[in-house]
Amino acid sequence: NKQTEIEMVMTYLQGVMQMHQTEIEV
Fold first, then answer.
1. Distance between CA atoms of 9 and 7, rounded to whole angstroms?
2. What is the 3-state secondary structure (H, E, C) of the chain?
3. pLDDT surpassing 80 at residue 2
4. According to the lineage, what is the superkingdom (predicted)?
5. What pLDDT digit, counting tens, does each position of 3-23 carry?
């Protein structure tokens, strides 16, 4: 299902962004 793929990618990108934000803050 395309919508499920997009949701998975968006969740993955949010996790990556949070990881990078933590790296920058520290």
1. 5
2. CHHHHHHHHHHHHHHHHHHHHHHHHC
3. yes
4. Eukaryota
5. 999 999 999 999 988 887 776
